[in-house]
Amino acid sequence: MGPLQIKEILQTTPENQSVVVKGWVRTKRESKNAIFIALNDGSTIHNIQAVAEPGQFSAELLLTVTTGSCLKITGQLIASQGAGQTVEVKITDIEVYGTADPEEYPLQPKKHSLEFLREIAHLRPRTNTFSAILRIRHALAFAVHQYFNEKSFFYLHTPVITASDAEGAGEMFRVTTLDLNNLPRTEEGAINFKEDFFGREANLTVSGQLEGELGAMALSKIYTFGPTFRAENSNTTRHLAEFWMIEPEMAFFELEDNMDLAEDFVKSVISYALINCKDDLNFLQNRLTEEEKNKPQNERSLPLLEKLSFVVDNPFERLTYTEAIEILLKSKPQKEGKFQFPVGWGIDLSSEHERYLVEKHFKKPVILTNYPREIKSFYMKLDEDGKTVRAMDVLFPGIGEIIGGSQREESYEKLLGRVKEIGIDPENLWWYLDTRKFGTAPHSGFGLGFERLVQFVTGMGNIRDVIPFPRYPKSAEF
Ligand code: ATP
Ligand code: MN
Fold this sequence. Notes:
The chain is an alpha+beta fold. It has 14 helices and 16 strands.
Protein backbone atom coordinates (compact mmCIF):
# COMPACT_ATOMS: atom_id res chain seq x y z
CA MET A 1 0.00 0.00 0.00
CA GLY A 2 1.54 3.23 -1.11
CA PRO A 3 5.18 3.68 -2.02
CA LEU A 4 8.00 2.57 0.26
CA GLN A 5 8.95 5.21 2.79
CA ILE A 6 12.47 6.41 3.41
CA LYS A 7 12.53 4.69 6.80
CA GLU A 8 11.96 1.35 5.07
CA ILE A 9 14.32 2.01 2.19
CA LEU A 10 17.13 2.86 4.61
CA GLN A 11 16.74 -0.59 6.16
CA THR A 12 16.77 -2.42 2.84
CA THR A 13 19.81 -4.37 1.70
CA PRO A 14 21.23 -2.61 -1.39
CA GLU A 15 21.36 -4.90 -4.43
CA ASN A 16 21.23 -2.42 -7.26
CA GLN A 17 17.48 -2.86 -7.28
CA SER A 18 15.40 -0.03 -8.67
CA VAL A 19 13.74 2.21 -6.11
CA VAL A 20 11.43 5.17 -6.10
CA VAL A 21 11.92 7.73 -3.33
CA LYS A 22 9.55 10.59 -2.65
CA GLY A 23 10.22 13.39 -0.23
CA TRP A 24 11.30 16.95 0.42
CA VAL A 25 14.80 18.19 -0.26
CA ARG A 26 16.73 19.03 2.87
CA THR A 27 19.97 19.95 1.13
CA LYS A 28 21.57 19.84 -2.28
CA ARG A 29 25.32 19.80 -2.57
CA GLU A 30 27.29 19.90 -5.80
CA SER A 31 30.91 18.82 -6.00
CA LYS A 32 33.18 18.31 -8.94
CA ASN A 33 32.32 14.63 -9.25
CA ALA A 34 28.74 14.40 -8.05
CA ILE A 35 25.52 16.05 -7.02
CA PHE A 36 24.14 14.98 -3.63
CA ILE A 37 20.51 15.43 -2.70
CA ALA A 38 19.37 14.70 0.86
CA LEU A 39 15.70 13.75 0.87
CA ASN A 40 13.39 13.40 3.86
CA ASP A 41 9.76 12.27 3.98
CA GLY A 42 9.18 12.58 7.73
CA SER A 43 9.04 8.82 8.30
CA THR A 44 12.37 9.03 10.12
CA ILE A 45 14.86 11.59 11.32
CA HIS A 46 17.35 10.23 8.76
CA ASN A 47 17.60 11.52 5.22
CA ILE A 48 18.28 9.34 2.25
CA GLN A 49 21.11 10.45 0.03
CA ALA A 50 20.55 10.46 -3.71
CA VAL A 51 23.50 10.93 -6.05
CA ALA A 52 23.67 12.10 -9.66
CA GLU A 53 26.56 12.73 -11.98
CA PRO A 54 27.43 16.24 -13.07
CA GLY A 55 25.87 16.87 -16.45
CA GLN A 56 23.35 14.06 -16.01
CA PHE A 57 20.53 16.58 -15.65
CA SER A 58 20.00 19.98 -17.20
CA ALA A 59 21.02 23.06 -15.26
CA GLU A 60 17.44 24.23 -15.60
CA LEU A 61 16.07 21.20 -13.77
CA LEU A 62 18.78 21.30 -11.11
CA LEU A 63 17.93 24.92 -10.38
CA THR A 64 14.46 23.83 -9.23
CA VAL A 65 15.91 21.23 -6.86
CA THR A 66 16.28 23.40 -3.80
CA THR A 67 15.72 23.07 -0.08
CA GLY A 68 12.01 22.47 0.50
CA SER A 69 11.15 21.34 -3.02
CA CYS A 70 9.38 18.02 -3.35
CA LEU A 71 10.78 15.29 -5.58
CA LYS A 72 10.15 11.86 -6.94
CA ILE A 73 13.50 10.24 -7.52
CA THR A 74 13.91 7.00 -9.41
CA GLY A 75 17.17 5.11 -9.29
CA GLN A 76 19.07 2.13 -7.93
CA LEU A 77 19.68 1.34 -4.32
CA ILE A 78 23.39 0.89 -3.78
CA ALA A 79 25.76 0.63 -0.84
CA SER A 80 26.91 4.07 0.13
CA GLN A 81 30.50 5.13 -0.31
CA GLY A 82 30.16 8.05 2.07
CA ALA A 83 30.15 8.07 5.83
CA GLY A 84 26.90 8.49 7.73
CA GLN A 85 24.68 6.16 5.71
CA THR A 86 24.71 2.55 4.57
CA VAL A 87 22.63 2.93 1.41
CA GLU A 88 22.11 5.62 -1.17
CA VAL A 89 20.22 6.06 -4.41
CA LYS A 90 21.98 6.32 -7.73
CA ILE A 91 19.62 8.62 -9.57
CA THR A 92 18.27 7.79 -13.02
CA ASP A 93 15.32 10.17 -13.05
CA ILE A 94 14.05 13.20 -11.16
CA GLU A 95 10.49 14.42 -11.24
CA VAL A 96 9.87 17.71 -9.44
CA TYR A 97 6.46 17.58 -7.76
CA GLY A 98 6.73 21.05 -6.30
CA THR A 99 9.36 23.76 -6.27
CA ALA A 100 10.15 26.01 -3.30
CA ASP A 101 11.58 29.33 -4.41
CA PRO A 102 14.66 29.92 -2.21
CA GLU A 103 13.90 33.64 -2.23
CA GLU A 104 10.62 32.93 -0.47
CA TYR A 105 10.92 29.60 1.32
CA PRO A 106 11.61 30.47 4.96
CA LEU A 107 13.26 27.22 6.02
CA GLN A 108 16.86 27.16 4.96
CA PRO A 109 19.51 24.65 5.95
CA LYS A 110 20.72 26.60 8.96
CA LYS A 111 19.70 26.96 12.58
CA HIS A 112 16.39 28.77 13.07
CA SER A 113 15.24 29.96 16.48
CA LEU A 114 12.25 28.23 18.07
CA GLU A 115 10.55 31.63 18.27
CA PHE A 116 10.91 32.13 14.54
CA LEU A 117 9.65 28.62 13.85
CA ARG A 118 6.54 29.31 15.94
CA GLU A 119 5.69 32.05 13.45
CA ILE A 120 5.82 29.53 10.63
CA ALA A 121 4.07 26.68 12.41
CA HIS A 122 2.64 25.53 9.08
CA LEU A 123 6.15 24.63 7.90
CA ARG A 124 8.01 23.76 11.08
CA PRO A 125 7.04 20.05 10.96
CA ARG A 126 9.55 19.89 8.10
CA THR A 127 12.45 20.59 10.44
CA ASN A 128 14.38 17.82 12.17
CA THR A 129 13.47 19.11 15.61
CA PHE A 130 9.73 19.34 15.03
CA SER A 131 9.38 16.14 13.06
CA ALA A 132 11.20 14.35 15.89
CA ILE A 133 8.85 15.91 18.45
CA LEU A 134 5.76 15.00 16.42
CA ARG A 135 6.87 11.39 16.00
CA ILE A 136 7.55 11.13 19.74
CA ARG A 137 4.19 12.75 20.48
CA HIS A 138 2.52 10.11 18.34
CA ALA A 139 4.41 7.29 20.05
CA LEU A 140 3.42 8.57 23.49
CA ALA A 141 -0.26 8.84 22.49
CA PHE A 142 -0.14 5.30 21.17
CA ALA A 143 1.55 4.11 24.38
CA VAL A 144 -1.20 5.74 26.44
CA HIS A 145 -3.94 3.81 24.67
CA GLN A 146 -1.92 0.61 24.75
CA TYR A 147 -1.24 0.93 28.46
CA PHE A 148 -4.87 1.42 29.41
CA ASN A 149 -6.10 -1.23 27.02
CA GLU A 150 -3.75 -3.77 28.57
CA LYS A 151 -4.96 -2.79 32.03
CA SER A 152 -8.65 -3.26 31.06
CA PHE A 153 -9.59 0.41 31.04
CA PHE A 154 -12.25 1.59 28.59
CA TYR A 155 -11.72 4.71 26.51
CA LEU A 156 -14.65 6.99 27.29
CA HIS A 157 -15.35 9.97 25.06
CA THR A 158 -16.46 12.77 27.31
CA PRO A 159 -18.03 15.90 25.81
CA VAL A 160 -16.04 18.84 24.57
CA ILE A 161 -18.98 21.20 25.06
CA THR A 162 -20.32 21.39 28.59
CA ALA A 163 -23.05 23.32 30.26
CA SER A 164 -21.87 22.73 33.80
CA ASP A 165 -20.15 25.77 35.20
CA ALA A 166 -18.94 23.78 38.18
CA GLU A 167 -15.27 23.79 37.36
CA GLY A 168 -12.92 26.54 36.42
CA ALA A 169 -15.49 29.30 36.46
CA GLY A 170 -14.11 32.31 34.66
CA GLU A 171 -11.45 30.28 32.85
CA MET A 172 -13.78 28.88 30.24
CA PHE A 173 -14.33 29.65 26.58
CA ARG A 174 -17.94 30.36 25.81
CA VAL A 175 -19.74 28.42 23.10
CA THR A 176 -22.62 30.32 21.56
CA THR A 177 -24.55 30.87 18.35
CA LEU A 178 -26.12 34.10 19.57
CA ASP A 179 -25.65 37.16 17.39
CA LEU A 180 -23.16 39.20 19.40
CA ASN A 181 -24.39 42.40 17.76
CA ASN A 182 -27.97 41.74 18.64
CA LEU A 183 -28.18 39.81 21.88
CA PRO A 184 -31.58 38.61 23.08
CA ARG A 185 -32.43 40.11 26.47
CA THR A 186 -34.60 39.05 29.38
CA GLU A 187 -37.07 41.50 30.88
CA GLU A 188 -34.41 42.38 33.45
CA GLY A 189 -31.99 43.23 30.67
CA ALA A 190 -29.65 40.25 31.11
CA ILE A 191 -28.59 38.17 28.11
CA ASN A 192 -31.25 35.56 27.50
CA PHE A 193 -29.37 32.32 27.10
CA LYS A 194 -32.64 30.44 26.75
CA GLU A 195 -32.46 31.55 23.14
CA ASP A 196 -28.93 30.25 22.71
CA PHE A 197 -28.25 26.98 20.87
CA PHE A 198 -28.41 24.74 23.94
CA GLY A 199 -31.05 26.82 25.70
CA ARG A 200 -28.49 27.64 28.37
CA GLU A 201 -24.94 28.87 28.78
CA ALA A 202 -22.35 26.52 27.35
CA ASN A 203 -18.56 26.36 27.39
CA LEU A 204 -15.64 24.32 26.16
CA THR A 205 -14.68 21.76 28.76
CA VAL A 206 -11.78 22.28 31.19
CA SER A 207 -11.75 18.59 32.14
CA GLY A 208 -13.61 15.39 31.38
CA GLN A 209 -13.42 14.25 34.97
CA LEU A 210 -16.99 14.71 36.14
CA GLU A 211 -18.35 12.74 33.21
CA GLY A 212 -15.44 10.32 33.60
CA GLU A 213 -16.67 9.56 37.10
CA LEU A 214 -20.08 8.68 35.69
CA GLY A 215 -18.36 6.17 33.43
CA ALA A 216 -16.29 4.68 36.26
CA MET A 217 -19.46 4.15 38.29
CA ALA A 218 -20.60 1.75 35.59
CA LEU A 219 -17.54 0.38 33.78
CA SER A 220 -15.18 0.44 36.81
CA LYS A 221 -12.07 1.61 34.94
CA ILE A 222 -12.23 4.25 32.23
CA TYR A 223 -9.96 6.91 30.80
CA THR A 224 -10.49 9.95 28.66
CA PHE A 225 -7.95 11.40 26.26
CA GLY A 226 -9.19 14.51 24.61
CA PRO A 227 -8.78 18.23 24.16
CA THR A 228 -9.39 20.56 27.09
CA PHE A 229 -9.56 24.32 27.09
CA ARG A 230 -8.57 26.96 29.60
CA ALA A 231 -9.00 30.66 29.05
CA GLU A 232 -6.50 31.47 31.79
CA ASN A 233 -4.34 34.31 30.62
CA SER A 234 -1.12 32.66 31.63
CA ASN A 235 1.72 33.33 29.26
CA THR A 236 3.98 30.67 30.67
CA THR A 237 6.12 27.93 29.16
CA ARG A 238 3.80 25.36 30.72
CA HIS A 239 0.29 26.54 29.83
CA LEU A 240 -1.72 26.33 26.63
CA ALA A 241 -5.26 27.52 26.02
CA GLU A 242 -5.98 24.23 24.25
CA PHE A 243 -4.26 21.10 25.45
CA TRP A 244 -4.86 17.37 25.60
CA MET A 245 -5.56 15.68 28.87
CA ILE A 246 -5.53 12.03 29.87
CA GLU A 247 -7.89 11.31 32.73
CA PRO A 248 -8.26 7.81 34.13
CA GLU A 249 -11.01 7.27 36.67
CA MET A 250 -11.31 4.08 38.68
CA ALA A 251 -13.99 2.63 40.93
CA PHE A 252 -12.67 0.91 44.05
CA PHE A 253 -9.29 2.71 43.90
CA GLU A 254 -8.12 4.52 47.01
CA LEU A 255 -5.45 7.21 47.06
CA GLU A 256 -2.61 4.65 47.38
CA ASP A 257 -3.85 2.74 44.34
CA ASN A 258 -4.21 6.01 42.46
CA MET A 259 -0.57 6.93 43.19
CA ASP A 260 0.62 3.46 42.21
CA LEU A 261 -1.24 3.72 38.92
CA ALA A 262 -0.01 7.23 38.15
CA GLU A 263 3.59 6.26 38.78
CA ASP A 264 3.41 3.01 36.84
CA PHE A 265 1.60 4.73 33.98
CA VAL A 266 4.07 7.57 33.41
CA LYS A 267 7.03 5.24 33.78
CA SER A 268 5.51 2.85 31.31
CA VAL A 269 4.81 5.41 28.57
CA ILE A 270 8.24 7.01 29.03
CA SER A 271 9.91 3.62 28.66
CA TYR A 272 7.84 3.00 25.54
CA ALA A 273 9.38 6.15 24.06
CA LEU A 274 12.87 5.09 25.18
CA ILE A 275 12.48 1.79 23.34
CA ASN A 276 10.65 3.01 20.26
CA CYS A 277 11.93 6.54 19.63
CA LYS A 278 15.67 6.03 19.98
CA ASP A 279 16.75 7.95 16.88
CA ASP A 280 14.52 10.92 17.59
CA LEU A 281 15.49 11.04 21.26
CA ASN A 282 19.15 10.86 20.35
CA PHE A 283 18.69 13.74 17.96
CA LEU A 284 16.93 15.85 20.59
CA GLN A 285 19.54 14.92 23.18
CA ASN A 286 22.32 16.17 20.93
CA ARG A 287 20.36 19.32 20.24
CA LEU A 288 20.04 19.99 23.98
CA THR A 289 23.69 19.23 24.66
CA GLU A 290 24.62 21.67 21.94
CA GLU A 291 22.32 24.29 23.46
CA GLU A 292 23.87 23.87 26.90
CA LYS A 293 27.46 23.90 25.70
CA ASN A 294 27.97 27.46 26.84
CA LYS A 295 26.56 26.89 30.30
CA PRO A 296 28.91 26.20 33.21
CA GLN A 297 29.25 22.48 34.01
CA ASN A 298 27.22 22.62 37.22
CA GLU A 299 24.24 24.25 35.50
CA ARG A 300 23.94 21.66 32.76
CA SER A 301 21.17 19.14 33.04
CA LEU A 302 21.50 15.39 32.68
CA PRO A 303 21.59 14.20 29.08
CA LEU A 304 18.00 13.59 27.96
CA LEU A 305 18.17 9.80 27.74
CA GLU A 306 19.80 9.54 31.17
CA LYS A 307 17.14 11.79 32.64
CA LEU A 308 14.36 9.64 31.19
CA SER A 309 15.97 6.39 32.31
CA PHE A 310 16.45 7.82 35.77
CA VAL A 311 12.73 8.56 36.07
CA VAL A 312 11.79 5.10 34.81
CA ASP A 313 14.22 3.29 37.13
CA ASN A 314 13.68 5.07 40.44
CA PRO A 315 10.71 5.16 42.79
CA PHE A 316 9.02 8.54 43.07
CA GLU A 317 9.28 10.21 46.47
CA ARG A 318 5.93 10.27 48.27
CA LEU A 319 5.16 12.67 51.07
CA THR A 320 2.34 14.78 52.43
CA TYR A 321 1.85 18.45 51.77
CA THR A 322 2.42 19.07 55.49
CA GLU A 323 5.79 17.31 55.35
CA ALA A 324 6.69 19.29 52.24
CA ILE A 325 5.95 22.56 54.01
CA GLU A 326 8.24 21.52 56.87
CA ILE A 327 11.04 20.80 54.41
CA LEU A 328 10.51 24.14 52.70
CA LEU A 329 10.48 26.02 56.01
CA LYS A 330 13.85 24.49 56.91
CA SER A 331 15.31 24.97 53.43
CA LYS A 332 18.30 27.14 52.55
CA PRO A 333 16.43 29.46 50.16
CA GLN A 334 13.76 30.00 52.83
CA LYS A 335 16.39 30.87 55.48
CA GLU A 336 18.17 33.16 53.06
CA GLY A 337 14.96 34.82 51.97
CA LYS A 338 15.43 33.63 48.39
CA PHE A 339 11.86 32.44 47.77
CA GLN A 340 9.72 35.07 46.10
CA PHE A 341 6.50 33.78 47.71
CA PRO A 342 6.06 33.16 51.45
CA VAL A 343 6.01 29.58 52.77
CA GLY A 344 3.54 28.41 55.42
CA TRP A 345 0.90 25.77 55.98
CA GLY A 346 -2.10 26.58 53.83
CA ILE A 347 -0.32 28.21 50.88
CA ASP A 348 -0.81 27.01 47.35
CA LEU A 349 2.72 25.89 46.48
CA SER A 350 4.20 28.00 43.73
CA SER A 351 6.45 26.61 41.09
CA GLU A 352 9.63 27.79 42.85
CA HIS A 353 8.62 25.69 45.88
CA GLU A 354 7.74 22.68 43.75
CA ARG A 355 11.00 22.96 41.86
CA TYR A 356 13.02 23.21 45.06
CA LEU A 357 11.48 19.97 46.34
CA VAL A 358 11.94 18.09 43.07
CA GLU A 359 15.18 19.49 41.71
CA LYS A 360 17.15 20.41 44.83
CA HIS A 361 15.85 18.44 47.78
CA PHE A 362 14.77 15.03 46.45
CA LYS A 363 16.32 15.19 42.96
CA LYS A 364 13.57 12.97 41.56
CA PRO A 365 9.85 13.05 40.82
CA VAL A 366 7.72 13.68 43.88
CA ILE A 367 4.13 12.84 44.72
CA LEU A 368 2.62 15.26 47.22
CA THR A 369 -0.57 14.23 49.00
CA ASN A 370 -3.14 15.44 51.52
CA TYR A 371 -3.33 19.13 50.65
CA PRO A 372 -5.38 21.64 52.64
CA ARG A 373 -9.01 21.45 51.53
CA GLU A 374 -9.17 25.19 50.87
CA ILE A 375 -6.75 25.07 47.97
CA LYS A 376 -8.17 21.98 46.26
CA SER A 377 -11.35 21.12 44.38
CA PHE A 378 -14.71 20.43 45.98
CA TYR A 379 -14.90 16.79 44.82
CA MET A 380 -11.83 15.59 46.70
CA LYS A 381 -12.38 13.24 49.64
CA LEU A 382 -12.00 14.84 53.04
CA ASP A 383 -9.44 13.32 55.38
CA GLU A 384 -10.50 12.31 58.89
CA ASP A 385 -9.08 15.51 60.37
CA GLY A 386 -11.44 17.54 58.18
CA LYS A 387 -8.55 19.87 57.28
CA THR A 388 -6.93 18.10 54.34
CA VAL A 389 -8.18 16.21 51.32
CA ARG A 390 -6.98 13.05 49.61
CA ALA A 391 -5.31 14.90 46.77
CA MET A 392 -2.13 13.95 44.96
CA ASP A 393 0.03 16.02 42.64
CA VAL A 394 2.91 14.46 40.75
CA LEU A 395 5.76 16.94 40.32
CA PHE A 396 8.46 16.51 37.69
CA PRO A 397 11.86 18.13 37.31
CA GLY A 398 11.78 21.06 34.91
CA ILE A 399 8.02 20.77 34.54
CA GLY A 400 6.45 21.13 37.97
CA GLU A 401 2.96 19.66 38.17
CA ILE A 402 2.50 17.00 35.52
CA ILE A 403 -0.41 15.16 37.17
CA GLY A 404 -3.15 16.35 39.49
CA GLY A 405 -5.52 13.83 41.02
CA SER A 406 -7.36 12.63 44.08
CA GLN A 407 -9.59 10.12 45.73
CA ARG A 408 -13.09 11.47 45.20
CA GLU A 409 -15.59 12.25 47.94
CA GLU A 410 -18.08 9.38 47.83
CA SER A 411 -20.38 10.53 50.64
CA TYR A 412 -23.46 12.32 49.32
CA GLU A 413 -23.84 14.51 52.39
CA LYS A 414 -20.20 15.58 52.52
CA LEU A 415 -20.08 16.27 48.79
CA LEU A 416 -23.31 18.27 48.88
CA GLY A 417 -21.89 20.23 51.80
CA ARG A 418 -18.75 21.08 49.83
CA VAL A 419 -20.73 22.02 46.72
CA LYS A 420 -22.79 24.50 48.72
CA GLU A 421 -19.78 25.74 50.65
CA ILE A 422 -18.01 26.92 47.49
CA GLY A 423 -21.18 28.46 46.13
CA ILE A 424 -22.17 26.08 43.32
CA ASP A 425 -25.89 25.58 42.85
CA PRO A 426 -26.45 21.82 43.49
CA GLU A 427 -29.18 21.96 40.82
CA ASN A 428 -26.47 22.36 38.19
CA LEU A 429 -24.75 19.20 39.34
CA TRP A 430 -27.75 16.99 40.03
CA TRP A 431 -26.47 14.29 37.69
CA TYR A 432 -23.03 14.26 39.31
CA LEU A 433 -24.50 14.16 42.81
CA ASP A 434 -26.73 11.25 41.72
CA THR A 435 -23.68 8.96 41.53
CA ARG A 436 -23.30 9.41 45.28
CA LYS A 437 -27.01 8.77 45.83
CA PHE A 438 -27.23 5.57 43.82
CA GLY A 439 -24.63 2.92 44.55
CA THR A 440 -21.81 5.22 45.51
CA ALA A 441 -18.35 3.67 45.81
CA PRO A 442 -14.85 4.71 46.75
CA HIS A 443 -13.12 5.87 43.59
CA SER A 444 -10.15 7.87 42.38
CA GLY A 445 -8.62 9.38 39.30
CA PHE A 446 -6.16 11.89 37.94
CA GLY A 447 -5.41 14.17 35.03
CA LEU A 448 -2.15 14.13 33.12
CA GLY A 449 -1.46 17.05 30.82
CA PHE A 450 -0.32 15.31 27.65
CA GLU A 451 1.82 18.24 26.45
CA ARG A 452 3.65 18.42 29.77
CA LEU A 453 4.52 14.76 29.31
CA VAL A 454 5.71 15.39 25.75
CA GLN A 455 7.68 18.36 27.05
CA PHE A 456 9.41 16.20 29.61
CA VAL A 457 10.21 13.41 27.18
CA THR A 458 11.50 15.71 24.44
CA GLY A 459 13.27 18.09 26.83
CA MET A 460 11.64 21.07 25.12
CA GLY A 461 11.57 24.18 27.26
CA ASN A 462 8.35 25.65 25.91
CA ILE A 463 5.03 23.83 25.79
CA ARG A 464 4.18 25.73 22.59
CA ASP A 465 6.76 23.62 20.81
CA VAL A 466 5.31 20.20 21.61
CA ILE A 467 1.86 20.59 20.02
CA PRO A 468 1.53 21.01 16.24
CA PHE A 469 -0.49 24.22 16.32
CA PRO A 470 -0.44 25.86 19.74
CA ARG A 471 -3.22 28.08 21.04
CA TYR A 472 -2.26 30.74 23.56
CA PRO A 473 -3.30 34.32 24.29
CA LYS A 474 -3.48 36.31 21.04
CA SER A 475 -2.45 33.34 18.95
CA ALA A 476 -4.62 30.97 16.91
CA GLU A 477 -3.23 31.61 13.46
CA PHE A 478 -2.77 28.14 12.05
P1 ATP B 1 -1.27 24.37 37.01
O1 ATP B 1 -1.34 24.59 38.48
O2 ATP B 1 0.06 23.89 36.52
O3 ATP B 1 -1.83 25.49 36.21
P2 ATP B 1 -3.71 22.95 37.36
O4 ATP B 1 -3.59 22.59 38.78
O5 ATP B 1 -4.59 24.07 36.96
O6 ATP B 1 -2.26 23.14 36.71
P3 ATP B 1 -5.29 20.61 36.80
O7 ATP B 1 -6.58 21.29 36.75
O8 ATP B 1 -4.95 19.79 37.98
O9 ATP B 1 -4.11 21.66 36.52
O10 ATP B 1 -5.10 19.77 35.44
C1 ATP B 1 -4.46 18.49 35.39
C2 ATP B 1 -3.20 18.53 34.56
O11 ATP B 1 -3.39 19.19 33.31
C3 ATP B 1 -2.06 19.31 35.20
O12 ATP B 1 -1.39 18.52 36.12
C4 ATP B 1 -1.21 19.67 33.99
O13 ATP B 1 -0.40 18.57 33.63
C5 ATP B 1 -2.22 19.87 32.91
N1 ATP B 1 -2.55 21.29 32.65
C6 ATP B 1 -3.31 22.10 33.40
N2 ATP B 1 -3.46 23.31 32.86
C7 ATP B 1 -2.77 23.28 31.67
C8 ATP B 1 -2.55 24.21 30.62
N3 ATP B 1 -3.10 25.43 30.66
N4 ATP B 1 -1.80 23.82 29.57
C9 ATP B 1 -1.27 22.57 29.53
N5 ATP B 1 -1.45 21.64 30.48
C10 ATP B 1 -2.18 21.97 31.56
MN1 MN C 1 -3.68 20.60 39.61
